[in-house]
Automatic annotation (TrEMBL), chain A:
Peptidase M16 N-terminal domain: residues covered: 73-190
Source species, domain of life: Bacteria
SUPFAM superfamilies the record matches: LuxS/MPP-like metallohydrolase (SSF63411)
Species this protein is from: Pyrinomonas methylaliphatogenes
Stretches assigned to the Peptidase M16 C-terminal domain: 222-398
GO molecular function (one): metal ion binding
Lineage of origin: Bacteria, Pseudomonadati, Acidobacteriota, Blastocatellia, Blastocatellales
Region Disordered, residue ranges: 34-56
Name listed for the protein in its UniProt record: Predicted Zn-dependent peptidase
Classification via Pfam families: Peptidase_M16, Peptidase_M16_C
Family matches, as InterPro entries: Metalloenz_LuxS/M16, MPP/UQCRC_Complex, Pept_M16_N, Peptidase_M16_C
PANTHER family from the UniProt entry: METALLOPROTEASE, PROCESSING PROTEASE
Automatic annotation (TrEMBL), chain B:
Pfam family, one: Peptidase_M16
Keywords, alphabetical: Hydrolase, Metalloprotease, Protease, Signal, Zinc
GO biological process: proteolysis
Keyword presence, Oxidoreductase: no
N-terminal signal peptide: 1-22
InterPro entries registered for this protein in UniProt: Metalloenz_LuxS/M16, Pept_M16_N, Peptidase_M16, Peptidase_M16_C
One Gene Ontology molecular-function label: metallopeptidase activity
Protein name (database record): Predicted Zn-dependent peptidase
Domain Peptidase M16 C-terminal, first and last residues per copy: 206-385
Length: 509, 462
């Protein structure tokens, strides 16, 4: 919710964190326009490329079962990120208490047995640091980013908030109100509302279906007992990974891990593994949430994607890059550059422990929502059938590799990447295989992946906007459109619609 | 902003460049002034007036290239609000030697990236590429400075993109319109009163002829600064710069400059504004403060951090944590070239009274005026500001932004090295002095931003 609020208020400039420190330089310039006339100049060609090396993470497991990973970058600026990751996240929320994992993580730094919430904020900020906590899918994380020299003090605080939170009633109420206010704002944004709906459409009543922060109804129900139980069950050293990255030596980092987490006791009873996810709804849906005051329509195409550990992962990454990854992807070419229908269109293959969503999204004028939805489907179909020339594929692979290099350029990005590998039980030095893995993908791989794993016939469409402006045209393109009024929407179930009785009951005060 | 990844309102409140930092790192990792090594830059000025600032850094095989044009939204032609930003988008269309979107072929397609942003005072184009592409990109940047050759179809289609940007950033989000109102209500005379994104009517009125004229007027070597940071050989860089930029002539016509100045505010102004789709009321309070080059800039930055950086800040503690009147607070010392604007924003918690939240906010301002901040609080604020700057300078592109800002807006690239000491020197008395001087009742504008449904008869100005 914090991020969301910053985006809404906008004007506080986010810093541009965007250069690429390390990148493979094997790509030749393939796009020089041969039709240039004689008087025109062609760009000078590149010089010889230089090679690159990403950090090699090292690891060790403490006697209590805590896995500690260090990704050291000795020559970087003196910053360190330390992240404590619990390998359980919002997927473990009981359906009637969705938001529980996120609420638990958010409350960690709101008071321990020895410090109040303001004292924790004061302590970390005096170090010039920041502390971020929250649940996501498959994990809950709390991380700090500080100057290398202040890492010992920061680690002491990190250990305290993970191991000794008190979950005071007063703080729970405060957090509950903030979460509800944040949700109220999110529900008014066509973009975030469309994402909430898309998850329900794809996952029905299975895990991964609810908003991570919960719903207006479930957040009301979360009580201290549930939070304490969640913390006791999942926050244990043998269900956690500590990742430290940036300018710090591995020895120094391991010593700090031992000092602050070495005596974190492992409970005697083994952790019960989380339940596997339920079956997904089989039928595709075209869902319109009618929001008459929407300034723009948010359009989403969503369908099942793949697991992170799928053997097709790298094929999927490249397929997504061609379709909707970055400025020059097909979706942005067709929707923004060619037709001016949107400020930006993109897609994402969101991989998780279990099958995650594949999502294409754009915001557009209410009047053109149907056209954008149709373009998304057309482009997905085209990727499965039409020829993909190397002149297009090679640059999309280069863009992917460049993005990856930029992602792990900052200490925060490096730590997040390593943590994700650890979460899904993958080899940590996959970082250094990334370029090779991407380069091995062929046009045939992309086409086959799209046909077999992203088939457009199983795609769902979600549009949040002023239905009057596009509904007639949408119905011409799609026969079975479900229209749900904004005030009838129920994010607690796959049906998405409040029952009549429910609507009547809650329309009261 | 050309693409969604960065907010349009980068406003150049990208923090003042207080702090110098470059490799090799000091042995002690302390952020003390004498331990922070200089950014070792080179400044050249070509015969045609182009300034070139470069920093060699071979720690990664990449290079960041930026071209800063000293023209921004305040230079939007009359009746063409939003034009400087619309024009920024056109700079990615065809030139004499490049076709539409060729910049993407030269950057994204080889693993790099590009983008641009338009602020009140400057327009900045930037790209990061593998360092063996430096010559290619210098050629391309020089090419779009020398010539722009947009066709009508591209112009019209890109204008639609900018209109969607307007809708996505300012109409669809619940508090988007508030950001426009802050500009409109805070300035009476200076062109800062026109939001950089413009409005649909004036965007529709823009023509291809406007594009040509704007390029001829402002896109000239003596109004540009090239910044190059990363992996390159200095002699080679100079030769390429001379070859591709040196041949661009300097026009004889003088550069037009905005001369309007905002008069001092003579009394509090209040506005009640309504918008659809606003879930919780919001309040914005603005004070007119000195421009970016003022000596008071440092103390204003510290005041900003004390008030609102992090959960231990005063406004968060009082308004969000203790009294639970607000769900969001923010302070922004938005110091621009001609005038600064100190903006405070509050989104209320549900069920709270805007009048009460306003009183609580103003009480915190009053406290900063009536008593000096505690030493620990002052040190915390400085640590936060310095750490923020360090994070910004993790990358070549971030470093280049700091250098560009120092050169173009502060008039001296060396400010990236000297400002840190001045920040460290800010005392509690300095903070109190700027609070007393600028945060007066008669120097404030107060906006209450409410849902349309609660609209009574009072609309707009009062």
């Amino acid at each position: 919710m914090k991020d969301l609020q910053v985006i809404q208020m906008g004007a506080r400039a986010r810093k541009i964190k965007a250069s690429l420190q390390t990148i493979m330089l094997l790509f030749t310039l393939s796009s020089t326009d041969r039709r240039l006339s004689a008087q025109q100049e062609t760009p000078p060609p590149p010089g010889p490329p230089r090679s690159v090396q990403f950090p090699k993470p090292v690891e060790k497991t403490l006697s209590n079962g805590l896995r500690v990973i260090v990704a050291s970058r000795p020559e970087s600026v003196p910053l360190v990120t330390a992240m404590l990751m619990i390998k359980t996240g919002a997927e473990a929320d009981p359906p009637e208490l969705s938001g529980l994992a996120d609420m638990t993580a958010n409350l960690l730094a709101k008071g321990t047995t020895t410090r109040s919430a303001p004292e924790i904020a004061e302590a970390i900020e005096a170090l010039g640091g920041s502390l971020d906590a929250g649940a996501r899918w498959d994990s809950s994380t709390i991380s700090i980013n500080v100057l290398s020299s202040r890492l010992p003090q920061a680690m002491e605080i990190l250990s305290d908030v993970v191991r000794h939170p008190v979950f005071k009633e007063e703080e729970i109420e405060r957090q509950r109100r903030q979460t509800l206010d944040g949700l109220q704002v999110a529900l008014r944004q066509p973009g975030s509302l469309a994402r909430f709906v898309a998850s329900r459409v794809l996952f029905g009543d299975a895990p991964y279906a609810h908003p991570i922060s919960g719903t207006l109804e479930t957040v009301q129900r979360i009580d201290r007992d549930a939070i304490v139980r969640f913390h006791r069950t999942y926050y244990r050293p043998d269900n956690a990974v500590l990742v430290i990255g940036g300018r710090i030596s591995p020895e120094g980092a391991f010593a700090l891990a031992e000092r602050f987490f070495g005596d974190w006791a492992r409970p005697a009873q083994p952790l019960t593994s989380s339940t596997s996810s339920a079956r997904l709804p089989a039928k595709s849906r075209i869902v319109v949430i009618d929001k008459p005051d929407a300034g723009q329509a948010a359009v989403i195409l969503v369908r099942a994607g793949i697991k992170r550990t799928d053997a097709d992962y790298f094929r999927g990454l490249v397929a997504n890059s061609v379709l909707g990854g970055g400025f020059s992807s097909r979706l942005n070419q067709e929707i923004r550059i060619r037709r001016g229908l949107s400020y930006g269109a993109s897609s994402a293959l969101d991989v998780r422990r279990d099958v995650g969503p594949f999502i294409a999204s754009a915001q557009t004028r209410n009047e053109t929502a149907d056209e954008v939805a149709a373009l998304m489907i057309t482009e997905l179909e085209r990727l499965a059938t039409d020829n993909l020339p190397d002149a297009e594929l090679t640059p999309r692979k280069a863009a992917l590799i460049g993005n990856f290099a930029r992602t792990i350029e900052t200490t925060g990005g490096l730590v997040a990447q390593v943590a994700s590998l650890a979460l899904y039980g993958l080899r940590l030095d996959e970082i250094n295989d990334y370029i090779r893995n991407i380069q091995a993908i062929t046009a045939d791989d992309v086409q086959r992946f799209t046909r077999e794993r992203l088939n457009a016939s199983e795609a769902n469409i979600v549009i949040v906007g002023n239905a009057r402006s596009f509904l007639d045209d949408l119905k011409k393109r799609f026969p079975n459109v479900e229209v749900i009024k904004e005030d009838e929407l129920d994010l607690n179930s796959g049906a998405l619609r409040r029952s009549q009785a429910q609507t009547g009951k809650e329309a009261g005060p | 902003m050309r693409f969604v990844k960065l907010p349009f309102s980068l406003l150049l409140s990208m923090m003042l460049s207080y702090q110098a930092f470059s490799e090799p790192m000091p042995r002690r990792n302390d952020l003390e002034t004498d331990n922070v090594p200089k950014i070792d830059y080179r400044l050249r000025t070509l015969a045609n007036g182009l300034r070139v600032v470069s920093v060699e850094d071979h720690s990664s095989p990449t290079v960041a290239i930026q071209v800063w044009y000293h023209v921004g939204s305040k230079d939007d032609p009359e009746g063409r609000s939003g034009f400087a930003h619309l024009f920024e988008h056109m700079m990615f269309k065809s030139t004499k030697n490049m076709k539409d979107e060729m910049m993407d072929r030269l950057t994204e397609d080889v693993g790099g990236f590009n983008n641009a942003f338009t602020a009140d005072d400057v327009t900045v184009y930037f790209e990061v590429v593998p360092s063996n592409y430096l010559e290619t990109l210098l050629w391309a940047e020089a090419d779009r400075l020398a010539s722009l050759n947009v066709n009508d179809e591209s112009f019209r289609s890109e204008r639609e993109v900018v209109k969607e940007e307007f809708m996505q950033s300012y109409v669809a989000p619940p508090y988007g319109k508030l950001n426009l109102l802050i500009e409109q209500r805070s300035f009476m005379v200076h062109p800062y009163r026109r939001p950089g994104i413009g409005n649909i009517e004036e965007l529709n009125a823009a023509t291809l002829e406007d594009v040509r004229r704007f390029h001829a007027t402002y896109y000239r070597p003596d109004n540009a600064t090239l910044v190059v940071v990363g992996d390159f050989d200095p002699k080679q860089l100079d030769a390429w710069v001379d070859k591709y930029f040196g041949r661009i002539p300097k026009p004889a016509a003088p550069l037009p400059r905005v001369t309007a100045r905002e008069p001092e505010r003579s009394g509090e102004r209040r506005y009640i504004e309504h918008a659809p789709n606003v879930p919780l009321p919001a309040i914005a309070v603005t004070y007119l403060v000195p421009p970016q080059r003022s000596d008071d800039a440092f103390a204003l930055r510290v005041a900003e951090a004390v008030l609102a950086e992090g959960e231990s800040s005063r406004l968060y503690q009082r308004l969000v944590y203790e009294r639970q009147l607000a769900q969001f607070i923010n302070a922004n010392a938005d110091l621009r070239e001609d005038h600064g604007l100190f903006v405070l924003r509050v989104i209320l918690a549900s069920g709270k009274d805007p009048a009460e939240a306003e009183r609580a906010l103003l009480a915190e301002i009053e406290k900063m005026r009536s008593a000096p901040v505690a030493n620990a609080e002052l040190e915390k604020a400085k640590n936060q500001l310095l750490a923020d700057l360090l994070r910004e300078r993790e990358t070549n592109n971030g470093k280049a932004l700091a250098i560009g800002e120092a050169t173009v807006l502060l008039g001296d690239p060396n400010r990236v090295n000297t400002d840190i000491a001045r920040l460290q020197a800010v005392s509690a008395a300095d903070v109190q002095r700027v609070m007393q001087r600028y945060f007066t009742d008669k120097n404030r504008v107060i906006i209450h931003y409410l849902a349309e449904s609660t609209n009574a008869q009072t609309e707009g100005k009062r």
